[in-house]
Amino acid sequence: MTTAHPVSILLVDDRPENLLALEAILEPLGQHLVRALSGDEALKKVLIHDFAVILLDVQMPGINGFETAKLIKSRERSRYIPIIFLTAINKEDAYVFEGYSVGAVDYLFKPFQPDILRSKVAVFVDLYQKQRQLNEQERLLREGERRELELQHTAELHASEARIAEIVNSAMDAIISFGEDQKVTLFNRAAEQMFGYPGAEAVGKPIGTFFKQDFDQRFLTHICAMPAAERTPGTTDPEAGGVESLVGKRKNGEEFPIEASMSCLDIGGEKLYNMIARDVSERKRAEEALRAQAVSLRNASAQLKATNEELSLRQSDLEKAMSARSRFYASMSHELRTPINAILGYNTLLLENIYGPLNDKQTEGLKRTQRAAKHLLELVNDVLDLSKIEAGKVEMNVQPVRFPTLIEDLFVTVTPMADERGSPLTLEWQGEPRTIMSDPRRVRQILLNLLSNAIKFGGQKPIRVVGGPTADGGVDIAVVDQGEGIATEDLPKVFDEFVQLPKRAGQQEGTGLGLPISRRLAELLRGKLEATSALGEGSIFRLTLPETADGRKNSMTLEPAGHSEARA
């Protein structure tokens, strides 16, 4: 077996005759055979050469074969060199095991068959050569990739130069380059449009042809001497670097404001100056307009401030007036309820004949007095409730409220009045019962008002209460009557304070506060109260309550209150 590129094989034995015998056996392989007469010499050889395989005697003076193998395997350079142990003495299993444990690939006893040894070594030589071929192929592959990458970079560089040229020509700002002789070498299309010179005519002209300012050599030298990071546009002072607020000159002689920045390149010892310039005529005009607007805005702001102060004073006066009105309502209500209750009490005693019998005319008169007093007391109570709501003094006692149980309990109260008016009441609950967190007293107050109105104005026809749970955890309750209904133009007024719609024959007198108070209470409970109606088709008042009223008190100022003040 021969090869154009022989590999090295290390033969280690302290007896020269043994090395000679190994060389005779391995000579047909045509490889480079390296001798070592001791473990120390073998270690030195390993540091110098790369070996395909090592044939190592076990029994040697100094460091033996096992110790030599350990040292070879401990080094990164020689860790993967296969080692074949050769011995004529140490044939016990313990020695064989130790040989494999220190990293040997084989352990042969002397005398051995030359052909077998030659074949084993040939295998490792072949593996080494294949590995070397793979390494060479990998090197060639990397070299090819490097060349391909260089070609790609060259193509990209050419493409980049073409793109840069296109960008320069298509840039919206004027780009001008000139050399140390101040002769223009680059004049892009934007510069042609800005200055009115064709590019072919502009190239070669002095840079001063296009600007009112003089570009002296001291300034240009200073630009090149300054680091790029310190070239700060924003001044025409040469000591500060950069250029701004230049005055350009068009071909027709017109002068116009320009903002420009400059840079300097040193190419092979020659200076190249680059300028990016922008016509700021429009911006200057806009700045002037903005300054004028700023003055106008300052004047308007001063006027607005004075108006706001006046409005603030008026709002303060209005709040004081509303507070005084609420206090008056509360005081009046308390003062009036005492004599009204006395009237009702004495009327009741008279009607019960406590002070003697009454004739029919007297009884009818007292009954009318009784109804008028009750209506007056109802009005006083409504005014007191309204004043509490507007003053933010309505407290909410939030607790679990179960539906339809609350409505069923309320029916017990209103059924006698409905029966007296000839209006049957029915409850239609759709879905499972629902428990929400709300104020049961305020909910009853709202529903009682809606039912009372339906009984009063329902035309002695059936009244339905339709309700059910909502998808967001709350409840929806609608009181449906079959009365004469409310005209479309009058419907928005039903929730205004002290507003009563024109009464028709047989309708009952109201206070004009029940529905406004009910809507305010619904909003305090984070719900809403809405109405739909049409003449001749009856009315539907719908109360929607959320899953929880969140336990807050009436600390909010309701928007409708401010509007209703003007209508009261």
CATH architecture annotation of the largest domain: 2-Layer Sandwich
CA-CA gap between termini = 121 Å
- Widest β-sheet, arrangement of strands: 2-1-3-4-5
- Find the CATH topology of the largest domain: Heat Shock Protein 90
Q: Helical region count?
A: 14
Can you tell me the CATH class of the largest domain?
A: Alpha Beta
pLDDT < 50 stretches: 232-241, 551-568
Structural class: alpha/beta
Q: Quick one: biggest sheet?
A: 5 strands, parallel
Radius of gyration: 54 Å
Write down the overall geometry: elongated
Strand content: 15-25%
Question: In words, what does this structure look like?
Answer:
The strands form four sheets. A five-stranded parallel sheet has the order 2-1-3-4-5, sandwiched between helices. A five-stranded antiparallel sheet has the order 7-6-10-9-8. Strands 12-14-15-17-16 form a five-stranded mixed sheet. The protein has four domains: 131 residues, 3-Layer(aba) Sandwich (Rossmann fold), CATH 3.40.50; 109 residues, Beta-Lactamase; 71 residues; 176 residues, Histidine kinase-like ATPase, C-terminal domain (Heat Shock Protein 90). It has 568 residues and is α/β, with parallel strands linked by helices.
